[in-house]
Amino acid sequence: MSLELKMKVAQGMKRLYERDLVSSLGGNLSARTDDGRVFITPSGSPKWELTEEDIVEVDLNGSVLSGKLKPSSELPSHLLIYRERTDVFAVAHAHPPHAVALATAGFLKEPPHVTPEEVLYLRRLSVLEFAPPGIKTAQAISSAVHSSDVIVVKNHGAFSMGKSIEEAIARIEILEEASKIIFMQLLLGRLPMRIPDNLVEEILETYKKT
Ligand SMILES: [Zn+2]
Question: Where in this chain does the record put each Class II aldolase/adducin N-terminal domain (predicted)?
Fold first, then answer.
């Protein structure tokens, strides 16, 4: 179980890096077990050579249980989310460039509702003002942790939560995909078009049935 989870955390982080959602030394990914152990990517290790041996195991207070490396510097935000949200089993933090640009420039303030998938996975989205990484970012996130599954911090990046690593990563990917679509509309000289509210309800109803 632990080894499998460590492998999934390392693979997931590599995926975010390979998809240009984070630079080699940026971003972090973690997963939590039912008994309160957290597996998180290390601080300062290049993402392209990450393996399960690099993943650090900590408890919910941040004490290292196993691993040779130092846990990510964003550990306080991951732990805050796990302590506050018992439904969350994975947290991804990346720097999706289009999403960060839109949020920082004031074009992304609420769920943009540009695609059905985004309606479903990003409907609990918050944008926060910049706070320095580490403890200060965790303090900022505490204000939005119960109302959001995706939190974008201006001039920095996004934190996403999920029931699984796959879901947390998908939320980052969908955030960036929706942001690219908004960008392209702006480049075409159009203000982003939203899916009408009555159809948003219909989309949510449709997904509920499947
Ligand atoms: Zn970051």
Answer: 7-183
**Domain hosting residue 162, numbered range:** 2-209
Question: pLDDT per position in the chain (210 positions), as tens?
Answer: 689 999 999 999 999 999 999 999 999 999 999 999 999 999 989 999 999 999 999 999 999 999 999 999 999 999 999 999 999 999 999 999 999 999 999 999 999 999 999 999 999 999 999 999 999 999 999 999 999 999 999 999 999 999 999 999 999 999 999 999 999 999 999 888 899 999 999 999 988 876
pTM of the full structure: 0.96
Handedness of CA 128, 141, 89, 48 (dihedral sign): positive
Q: Which of 56, 60, 58 is nearest to 68 (CA)?
A: 56
CB-CB contact of 30 with 40 (8 Å):
yes
Ligand 1 geometric centre to CA of 95 (Å) = 6
- Determine the Cα–Cα distance for residues 171 and 161; give it in Å rounded to an integer: 8
CATH number where 52 lies: 3.40.225.10
| Residue 176 a catalytic site member | no
DSSP SS3 for 92: strand
Ligand 1 being an ion, which residues bring their Cβ within 5 A of it?
157
**How far apart are alpha carbons 129 and 109 in whole angstroms?**
11
> Which position among 4, 18, 53, 74 bears the catalytic label?
74
d(CA 114, CA 91): 24
Q: How many domains does the chain have?
A: 1
Give residue 157 CA to ligand 1 midpoint distance, Å.
6
